[in-house]
Amino acid sequence: KSTETSPSVVLENIQGCSPKCLRMLMENISGLSVDDDFTVEVIPEINVAVATFKKSVDTEEFVKKCLQNKRVKEFKMTARLLELTQSIKAENIPDSVSTDYITVYFESVRNGGGPVADVQLFPEENSAIITFCDHKGNT
């Protein structure tokens, strides 16, 4: 088992819970406050939300609390850790941006990046897949 745990938790099957309700539920379960302590990104196309903790939180314990929570059970939601990854997708990239620029941008520590292993540019959808040498770069 890895000693490093993801700072993000995936909540699945969220269609019965509005984004505002979901945020309040997460605050109730965690005892933390949305925006200050964690962010919630709702992805309605695949019926999930991802909570990413800014503070050091035992996310495995948070998942357990979610799965035991009465409201989470009523909504028939599930929770699991988001697996650590070395690749991210960047969207809304202007046509004029080069792979070199993207590499330098995402290697910037100031931008939360790290050493980049590869950049695949998809100009037709204005996006790129950035693969880091280590998953720590994709913050």
Automatic annotation (TrEMBL):
Domain PARP14 second RRM intervals: 5-83
InterPro entries hit by this protein: Nucleotide-bd_a/b_plait_sf, RRM_PARP14_2
Top-rank lineage group of the source organism: Eukaryota
Pfam short name (any one): RRM_PARP14_2
Name of the protein described by the UniProt record: PAR14 polymerase
